[in-house]
Design a protein that fits this description.
The protein is of the alpha+beta class. It has one domain. It is 38% helix and 24% strand. It has 5 helices and 6 strands, in the order αββαββααββα. The strands form 2 sheets. The protein has a 4-stranded mixed β-sheet. Strands 1-2 form a two-stranded antiparallel ribbon. The radius of gyration is 24 Å and the shape is elongated.
Length: 160
């Protein structure tokens, strides 16, 4: 007595398609973990137990150090996510441009960086110092940071 097994071709086809979709989704899920990176943002604490406290956030990974630094700084300028942290950068401050060449990071901020100082607890010099510290913490390849406001280099008199 011979037994024959009949395969249902449409069911087999749909099963194969679903299996391929599942494999593709699983691969995309695991690869997406590599397209994001944790960065630490430093903000003044509301109750000042420490001068600055860190917030860890997951940001998209970009190609090239310049794009990663720009993404980081644009997020940092927006302000903290935690309610017990204060802004580091004055309200209305924008990052106009970011350029990374041979270990030097050039940062150009809008004029609100100097004019909106009433909204933050730190002086411009302290803000720049903490900016350098945060950048070096997250991007060890940066050797030096140069700051500009509306294209003009900041001198000592601008943030002392």
């Amino acid at each position: 007595m011979k037994h024959t097994v009949r395969l249902n071709k449409p069911a087999l086809l749909w099963g194969g398609i679903l299996l391929l979709i599942f494999a593709f989704s699983l691969g995309a899920f695991f690869l997406s973990a590599y397209s994001r990176v944790y960065r630490v943002f430093f903000y003044p604490a509301l109750h000042q137990t420490f001068p600055l406290q860190g917030e860890r956030r997951l940001l998209p990974r970009r190609r090239g150090g310049e794009n990663n630094a720009e993404e980081y700084l644009r997020e940092w300028v927006l302000g903290p996510q935690k309610i017990d942290h204060l802004r580091l950068f004055p309200g209305g401050t924008r990052l106009i441009s970011c350029l990374f060449r041979e270990g030097v990071l050039y940062l150009n901020f809008s004029v609100e960086f100097l004019t909106g100082q009433d909204s933050v607890p730190l002086s411009p010099g302290e803000i720049l110092g903490e900016t350098v510290r945060g950048i070096r913490f997250n991007f060890p390849e940066v050797r030096e940071c140069l700051f500009f406001v509306d294209g003009e280099p900041l001198g000592e008199e601008d943030y002392s």
